[in-house]
Amino acid sequence: MNKAYLLTGGNLGDRAGNLAMASAYIQQYCGTIVQKSCLYETAAWGLQDQPDFYNQAILLETDLTAPNLMEILLRIEYKMGRTRTVKMGPRIIDIDMLFYNTAIMETATLIIPHPRMQERRFVLMPLAEIAPQYVHPVFHKTIVQLLEACKDELNVYKIEQ
């Protein structure tokens, strides 16, 4: 059984409801969700003139290969109404694959580990909640160590649930 760490996020509509719907689709089509972080809220990273995001980290056990999993995740985004008109723009849902086992791979459509996750507190904080001691296969540091070294100054708030 393969283990994939995912990050769901969105800043349009019912943010919490959209993340819950994405989790339900992931569970239905991709495998078994073993663990989920709390929801976290943060200002938009990159293109800043847009609503705040909710994000959640997910640990998924799956029989799918990494490319097949990514293909299904993109289909889930499409099914939920995701459009890709503005890079880093507002979106109803975004599903990123952060890690797949300890794989290091790069194809035309997929880079694992996610290439910029170590620069983003909104990724590292929810991930540290569910996988604090997971070792990044490129940087050879735990998620907690990456979070401590992260220079991103955006505030990330844990949503009480």
UniProtKB/TrEMBL annotation:
Domain 7,8-dihydro-6-hydroxymethylpterin-pyrophosphokinase: 87-98
Protein name as catalogued: 2-amino-4-hydroxy-6-hydroxymethyldihydropteridine pyrophosphokinase
Keywords attached to this entry: ATP-binding, Folate biosynthesis, Kinase, Nucleotide-binding, Transferase
Pathway involvement of the protein, from the record: Cofactor biosynthesis; tetrahydrofolate biosynthesis; 2-amino-4-hydroxy-6-hydroxymethyl-7,8-dihydropteridine diphosphate from 7,8-dihydroneopterin triphosphate: step 4/4
NCBIfam families on file: folK
Entries under InterPro entries matching the protein: Hppk, Hppk_sf
Top EC class, one word: transferase
Known role: Catalyzes the transfer of pyrophosphate from adenosine triphosphate (ATP) to 6-hydroxymethyl-7,8-dihydropterin, an enzymatic step in folate biosynthesis pathway.
E.C. number(s) listed in UniProt: 2.7.6.3
The organism's place on the tree of life at top rank: Bacteria
Gene Ontology molecular function: 2-amino-4-hydroxy-6-hydroxymethyldihydropteridine diphosphokinase activity; ATP binding; kinase activity
UniProt KW ATP-binding keyword: yes
Family per record: Belongs to the HPPK family.
Alphabetized CDD domains for the sequence: HPPK (cd00483)
Source species: Panacibacter microcysteis
Pfam families, per the entry: HPPK
GO BP annotations, alphabetical order: folic acid biosynthetic process
